[in-house]
Design goal:
single chain; 229 residues; Jelly Rolls; eleven-stranded antiparallel β-sheet; two-stranded antiparallel sheet; binds fe (ii) ion
C-alpha cells in the first residue's frame, strides 16, 4: 500500500465537504480568486517527489527570463525562473520526442503518480471551494533558484483554467504575494500548503533568498493544471 499523500487537515477537509471550514475557504476564494490551505499535503512526500523529479527532468528545462521594463518612474514586468513542462508554454523548444521523454521522466520519478493521486483525492474538495466542475489536465514544475522572481502579473490571464500549486522549499524562506485590499500581501510557502489560483488574480513571487551560507536555495513549485469542465 502506498504511503498517504494528504496531511491531517487535508484528509479531514476532503472527507468533510459540508464542513464549516470548506464553506470558509469557498468564501475566501469567491472574494480573492485565491486560497491557501496549510497542512494539506504531507511535506515529506512532496519534498521527496519534487526534488527527485526536478533533478531527473533538468535536461528538459525551459529557462523563462525577461528583464524588468524600466521607464521613467516605473520598473516592472520582469521574471526569471525555470519551467519543466511537457505541455505547451511560452519559450518551449520541446519537440514530440522531448515531450514524450519528459512525460516518461515524470512517470519514473513518481511525480505523475503523486499528482494523479492528489488530483483524484482532492477533486471534490477543489470543486467545492471554487464552485465549478474541474478536470485535471497535467502536472508541471516551476523551479526557482537564488535571486529568481516574478514581478506582479496575472490580470490578463483569464483563460478557462485553474492552477493548484504546492511549494517545496530547500534552504530558503519564500512567499507568493496576492493583491488583497489594495496591497500585494505575502502568503508564505509553508511546508505542505496547497494553493488554488483562479484566473485573473494579480500576484508575484518574491526573490528567492539564501538562508544558509553554504547551501544554494531552491524552490520547486509542483503545479497541477485543471480546466473548467
Ligand atoms: Fe503566476
Amino acid at each position: 500500500m502506498s504511503r498517504p499523500i494528504l496531511a491531517e487537515q487535508g484528509a479531514a477537509l476532503v472527507s468533510r465537504l459540508e464542513g464549516a471550514r470548506v464553506g470558509e475557504l469557498r468564501e475566501i476564494y469567491r472574494q480573492l480568486r485565491f486560497v491557501q490551505v496549510d497542512d494539506m499535503v504531507r511535506p515529506d512526500r512532496l519534498a521527496e517527489v519534487a526534488r527527485r523529479a526536478a533533478e531527473l527532468a533538468r535536461p528538459y528545462t525551459t529557462r523563462c527570463e525577461r528583464p524588468h521594463d524600466v521607464a521613467p518612474g516605473s520598473l516592472a514586468g520582469g521574471y526569471r525562473f525555470d519551467r519543466i513542462d511537457w505541455g505547451a508554454h511560452a519559450g518551449s523548444r520541446h519537440g514530440e520526442e522531448d515531450r514524450a521523454a519528459l512525460r516518461a521522466v515524470f512517470d519514473a520519478s513518481g511525480l505523475s503518480r503523486f499528482a494523479g493521486e492528489l488530483a483524484q483525492a482532492a477533486l471534490p474538495f477543489l470543486e467545492a471551494v471554487v464552485d465549478r466542475e474541474l478536470s485535471y489536465d497535467r502536472v508541471f514544475l516551476l523551479v526557482y533558484r537564488e535571486g529568481d522572481f516574478i514581478d506582479p502579473h496575472g490580470d490578463s490571464q483569464v483563460g478557462q483554467r485553474l492552477m493548484v500549486q504546492m511549494p517545496a522549499c530547500f534552504g530558503c524562506r519564500t512567499a507568493l504575494r496576492i493583491l488583497k485590499d489594495g496591497y500585494l500581501e505575502p502568503f508564505y510557502d509553508e511546508p505542505g500548503c496547497l494553493r488554488i489560483l483562479g484566473p485573473g488574480i494579480w500576484h508575484d513571487v518574491l526573490p528567492i533568498l539564501r538562508l544558509e551560507p553554504d547551501r544554494p536555495p531552491e524552490r520547486v513549485l509542483v503545479s497541477l493544471r485543471f480546466s473548467y469542465a
